[in-house]
Amino acid sequence: MASSRDKRSGSIYKFRDALIKKIEKKFEEEERLLRLQREKQANNEPSEEAEPSALMLTCDDEDPFADPSNATTADVVKVLRTLSVQIEQLSCKQDTFQHQLDETKSRVTKLDRRLNEVLFMAEAVKDELMFDDFQKATEQIVTPVPWFEFQAVSNETELKDLDHRLATDEAYSRNLTKWLNAKILHPDPNHRLHQAMEAVFKREFLPSCSWKGRAKPGQFRISMSAQKFIMELFRVVGSNRFITISDEFVAKFFIKKLPFAKARLNLKGYRSSVCNRKS
Q1: Where are the domains of the chain?
Q2: Per-residue model confidence as pLDDT tens digits over 112-133
Q3: Is 157 helix (H, G, I), strand (E, B) or coil?
Q4: For 196-251, how does the pLDDT look when each residue is reduced to its tens digit (9 = 90+)?
Q5: Where does the DUF4806 domain start and stop, copy by copy (predicted)?
Q6: What pLDDT, on the 0 to 100 scale, is given for residue 224?
Q7: Are 8 and 2 in contact (CB under 8 A)?
Q8: Average pLDDT, the chain
Q9: Helix 247-257 and helix 189-200: axis angle, to 10°?
Q10: Distance of CA 218 to CAs 152, 211, 260, Å?
Q11: pLDDT > 70: what percent of the chain?
Q12: Residue 82 C-alpha from the chain's centroid
């Protein structure tokens, strides 16, 4: 059964979709109206056949340039006037077309701005609801385990022991998950994974690890991907009430973080990394 939060989120998406459809419908009506106006104007404009006298010389008119020796000043003026009328008509058509084009662009810009405003408003409301509900859910459900203690992993033996215990001791796995969720309150999966990494591993240990255990000749690296149950722990803790991350998400996180583990040794104290994701 859908919760009140799910119903509110669903109503927001329905409201957004309805507004988008309404804006798209109005845009289509505007385009159809402009097209009809252009067709009507084209039908009302005099064609070259309807007024041949305004666009070209008639059969009764003698071409003054057929025999330049017979052309008079009046003939030349008459031809120039005809050309002037043609140029003026073409200029008028060009101005009309440019005006219609500018009007269409203006309408499209306004509709696009309205659509962006609707999308931004819907996303802002959704994010606010999600964050508020996440905080309430965290306060109500995630409570620290008062007697549970965990020491951060500092060597390969402790790493393998932790992976084995997570695989065989369900109660320990559940308590460690609760312990981490009580420490990590940020809803973003990348932030959650980073804070979990700070809590589970000591910084001095991570430079000796790589995702697949690959290293330069003469060097040794511990394979983090081989610790299946620790990675499952990170997948669970990195997820939140609204987003369930995948194994691939966790793998990409460690592939990105482990090569810089040595550089992070110079950081003093704890600093939560900010994920600069491209928009």
Answers
A1: 84-130, 156-266
A2: 787 787 777 777 766 666 665 5
A3: helix
A4: 999 999 999 999 999 999 888 888 899 999 999 999 999 999 998 888 999 999 99
A5: 147-234
A6: 95
A7: no
A8: 78
A9: 60
A10: 28, 18, 20
A11: 72
A12: 58
- Cβ atoms 235, 252 nearer than 8 A: no
Q: Are strands 209-210 and 222-223 parallel, antiparallel or unpaired?
A: parallel
In this prediction, residue 79 carries a pLDDT of 78
The Cα 188–Cα 130 span in angstroms is 11
57 Cβ partners below 8 Å, 6+ apart?
63, 79, 82
pLDDT score of 137: 52
272 or 70: which leads in pLDDT? 70
CB atoms within 10 A of CB 24: 12
Tell me which of 94 and 202 has the higher pLDDT.
202
For residue 222, give the 3-state DSSP assignment: strand
DSSP for residue 231: H
**Rounded percentage of the chain residues whose pLDDT exceeds 90:** 34
The residue that leads in pLDDT, 122 or 148, is 148
| CA diameter of the chain | 118
Structure tokens given for 242 = 């609204």
At which residue do the structure tokens 């500092």 appear? 154
Residues in CB range of 18: below 8 A, 6 or more apart: none
In 3D space, the residue among 176, 197, 185 whose CA is nearest the CA of residue 253 turns out to be: 197
Backbone φ and ψ of 222, nearest 5°: -85, 135
Report the distance separating Cα 45 and Cα 47, nearest Å: 6
Take residue 236 and report the two structure tokens written for it.
């669970």
d(CA 120, CA 267): 37
| 177 closest CA partner among 203, 201, 228, 142 | 142
C-alpha separations of 129 from 3, 18, 105, 138 in Å: 13, 20, 36, 14
